[in-house]
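Q: What structure does this chain adopt?
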Amino acid sequence: MDSWHFRLKGAKGASLVKALSGGALFGTASIFIRFLPMLDAATIGFYRLMMAAAFLAVINYVLFRPNTLELLSHLKHSVPLGILLGLHFIFFISAVKNTTVMNATTLVNTTPIFAMIISLAFFGIRPTFTALVGLFVSFAGTFLIALSTASLIPGNLRGDLEALVAAFFWALYLNLGKPLREKVYLPFIYIVAAGLMFLVICVSGNNLYIPGLSEFTVLVALALLPTALGHTLHFYSLKGLTPSQAATSALLEPVVASSLAALLFSEVPHPIFVVGAIATILGIFLVSKETTS
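A:
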């Protein structure tokens, strides 16, 4: 029993390291997006995901030589996850373009709140009292962030709302992804998501933008660091963590992103926002602290 318990703790510890590493890498995404002002959200998402898919497909082939029939069996499970991931990216990238980096990265990390609600509604996982307190604190913090945005930078409110929608789709992705983790092939998920981006570009009546060399370099970094590496680590942390626990590890994202934004773009947050962000992050931590079934 003791050795089994040790292995269990070891597996959870490895999952936690993966989740935290992924969360830290997420913090670079909004910075790279800021260096792509000429590209809209769907175009950035398309290139980001296609490059990430190509990179992961090559790595998978070299290391594991997957069987073609086995890969095809994963396709049907990858489609719904790809659609959810694509929607998450569209709203998050647009949020980064329409509000501050710290607003976007803090609000997108309200995912554990949505994950808790989804887990309760569809999987019967009941929140503890601590989680309910966290839910209230997070809502209070989110209200303060919205208040500071509406009063100080009214035009950014759209980006704040888009970040919350992105958080909702990420929560759906994590809840659906946990039981399907062994049945999906991540490059397929990224290709489906990229296909959704391309469809959005076509429906909007735009032609696919061809990036210049400097933009292409940024897109490669965006595809490799927060996407291929960050999202892969985060997704596979679901082996030992619940969706809300995995989502909470992404709290490193606003810390990394806001630090880089302050350094590179002089985005220093207003005191009201800082209070709201602290409350939101504290509430998210409490939400994911414990759940009971």
